Amino acid sequence: MVRRLNSYEIIKYAKQKEIKNIILCMGYRSRTDYQQFYDLGANKYIMKFETSNKQNYRTMKNGESINTRLEHLNTLRKVGYDIGSGNIYGLPGQSEEDLYKDLVLMKKLECNLASVSPFIVPSQSVLEGVYNAEINNVLNYLAIMRLELESALIPSVSAFELLKENGQLDAFNAGANVITINMTPAVFRESYPIYNSKRNIVKFDYAKNVIENAGLSLAVEL
Rounded distance, CA 82 to CA 215, Å? Predict the structure, then answer.
């Protein structure tokens, strides 16, 4: 019988394997948990705020206040984590002012990793039928992020490829400098449908090819 490891055991195991960066994306936890994870070796935490518009956030999050998320992000920073956060471009009702305030918030949070993801309509949701984000607009926004957040890690997320062939390459050309590889075993992927069954699965050879076509050199960060 195979025993599943808990979060603490996984972090401890990763640290023992001398993995330099242990990045967590585990949603809301108690400050005690954040501290224990950090003490075990985790050093980065991703928690996107998605929109800085208080009313839109409340609507999308079933009544939750954005202040709750910001409190958790500030707690993570106080514990000592590098922060990964960012927004979604193209949300229904989003304005240019909202996008500007999103960028201001990224700077205020001092995001070490800053991310913009294009809005893609999830199937079987209340938003089904709404238009996806226009990729060129998202790429322009990413380019502005690069100018304003010079030292931040900005990922070329897989959603770009879902919107357009070579979309992830376009994101690198716009200013992205990170691509993540999906190492989830195929047997478990069906349990994590972010967009739909057409999600682009980023593997090492594909990522390496995108980086080389962007005229960049490969640096594997562990």
Answer: 28
Q: What is the three-class DSSP state of 44? A: strand
φ/ψ of 100, rounded to 5, equals -65, -45
- Three-state DSSP state, 6: coil
Which residue do the tokens 């304003």 mark?
148
Report the alpha-carbon distance of residue 192 to residue 197 in Å, rounded: 10
pLDDT digits (tens, 9 = 90+) for 44-102: 999 999 999 999 999 989 999 999 999 999 999 999 999 999 999 999 889 999 999 99
For residue 197, the Cα-to-chain-centroid distance in whole angstroms is 19
Where b means 16+ CB within 10 Å and e means fewer, 100-128 reads ebbbebbeebebbbbbbbbbbbeeeeeee
